């Protein structure tokens, strides 16, 4: 009969072997620094337009939104630079990691972070990561990037001209730049459109990574929560007052599911808000409350106009 000592020793051996297998086959891989690809701590601006960023699950520890960019696929496109606005801010290179399930390289991530957003430039095996990184980023701070020829000719030039078309082309350049800064910092795509014969500047936001618990927040509460989070941005758009624009539109998808069921899929609501510039100006000047401001807006959820009580939000 096997002694207790022998049994424990045998079990420890099995456990050690199991840990070794996990380490070999499932650990993503070592960080590829020491200037092998991209120096850690480098400050850069990501030139990739926001519509080409893909939302991932937010950081569990900090709640920071995380995005990935298909760098290899992107570089095969001829038009990627003019798809939309880039993120208006800078990042610091934190790590470069090869993901190796079962020991075979699947992809390599160059991870960039700032206090508000994390983004991963994802390269497929065989990619020239160093060259690709140089093509997709600007080496320097945001202020340096804004003074570059690339920003003037591509971002403010080609992309800005596409956004500020028709009557919006009459907006002074200084106000156009302020508007682009607000949008780019908030991860929003910008467009111009008409609604009920009025001209609106539209802000479309990507998925935030937040999934609301439908057992705690019903449709009205979810909508109020999202609107409360956008009030400061809407207030900042008072800069557009006294221009040819009649208002601002914001659009966002709200994810939710039943947390009582582990297998319940996510559902979504489509939120659209049309805010008159006159109301935005009153709100920014503290002439009306946030509720009075929202009451002057057209709020549409899943193609139906609704009323929203902001105090119902979390």
Secondary-structure map:
Blueprint: H1 4-25, E1 43-46, E2 54-55, E3 66-70, H2 71-74, E4 91-99, E5 107-113, E6 118-123, H3 129-136, E7 137-139, H4 142-146, H5 149-163, H6 173-185, E8 189-195, E9 198-204, E10 211-213, H7 219-236, E11 247-257, E12 267-276, H8 277-284, H9 290-295, E13 298-301, E14 304-306
Parallel strand pairs: 3-6, 9-11, 10-11
Antiparallel strand pairs: 1-4, 1-7, 2-3, 4-5, 5-6, 8-9, 11-12, 12-13, 13-14
Question: How does this model look, in words?
Answer:
There is one protein chain. The chain has helices spanning 4-25, 71-74, 129-136, 142-146, 149-163, 173-185, 219-236, 277-284, 290-295; strands at residues 43-46, 54-55, 66-70, 91-99, 107-113, 118-123, 137-139, 189-195, 198-204, 211-213, 247-257, 267-276, 298-301, 304-306. It has 314 residues and is an alpha+beta fold. It has 3 domains: 1-27; 31-144, no CATH class; 164-312, no CATH class. The longest helix is centred in the N-terminal third of the chain and has 22 residues, at 4-25. The protein is globular. The chain starts with a helix and ends in an 8-residue tail after the last strand. The relative contact order is 0.10.
Strand content: 25-35%
Integer tally of domains? 3
Provide the succession of SSEs: HEEEHEEEHEHHHEEEHEEHHEE
Looking at the structure, what is the overall shape?
Answer: globular
Which regions contain 5 or more consecutive residues with pLDDT less than 50?
16-35
Distance between the termini: 63 Å
Count helical runs: 9
Average pLDDT score: 86
Describe the main β-sheet briefly. Answer: 7 strands, mixed
Radius of gyration: 24 Å
Tell me the quaternary state.
single chain
Structural class call reads alpha+beta
Relative helix content: 25-40%
Query: Strands across the major sheet, in which order?
Result: 2-3-6-5-4-1-7
Number of strands: 14
């Amino acid at each position: 009969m096997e002694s207790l000592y022998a049994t424990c020793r045998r079990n420890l051996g099995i456990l050690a072997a199991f840990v070794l297998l996990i380490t070999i086959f499932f650990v993503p891989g070592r960080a590829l620094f020491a200037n092998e690809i991209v120096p850690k701590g480098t400050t850069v601006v990501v030139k990739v337009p926001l519509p080409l960023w893909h939302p991932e699950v937010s950081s569990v520890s900090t709640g920071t939104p995380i995005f990935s960019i298909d760098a290899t696929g992107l570089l095969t496109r001829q038009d990627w630079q003019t798809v939309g606005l880039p993120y208006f801010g800078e990042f610091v290179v934190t790590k470069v990691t090869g993901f190796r399930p079962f020991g075979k390289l699947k992809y390599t991530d160059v991870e960039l972070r700032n206090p508000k957003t994390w983004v991963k430039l994802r390269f497929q095996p065989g990619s020239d990561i160093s060259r690709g990184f140089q093509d997709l980023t600007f080496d320097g701070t945001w202020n340096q990037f804004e003074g570059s020829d690339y920003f003037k000719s591509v971002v403010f030039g080609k992309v800005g001209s596409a956004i500020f078309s028709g009557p919006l082309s009459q907006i002074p350049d200084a106000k156009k730049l302020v508007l682009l800064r607000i949008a780019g910092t908030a991860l929003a795509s910008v467009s111009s459109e008409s609604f009920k014969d009025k001209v609106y500047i539209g802000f479309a936001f990507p998925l935030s990574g937040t999934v609301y618990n439908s057992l705690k927040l019903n449709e009205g509460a979810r909508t109020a929560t999202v609107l409360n989070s956008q009030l400061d941005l809407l207030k900042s758009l008072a800069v557009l007052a006294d221009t040819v624009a009649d208002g601002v539109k914001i659009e966002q998808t709200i994810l939710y599911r039943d947390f009582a069921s582990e297998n319940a899929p996510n559902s979504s609501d489509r939120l659209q808000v049309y805010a008159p510039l006159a109301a935005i100006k009153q709100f920014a000047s503290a002439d009306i409350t946030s509720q009075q401001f929202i009451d002057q807006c057209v709020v549409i959820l899943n193609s139906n106009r609704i009323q929203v009580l902001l105090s119902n939000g979390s």
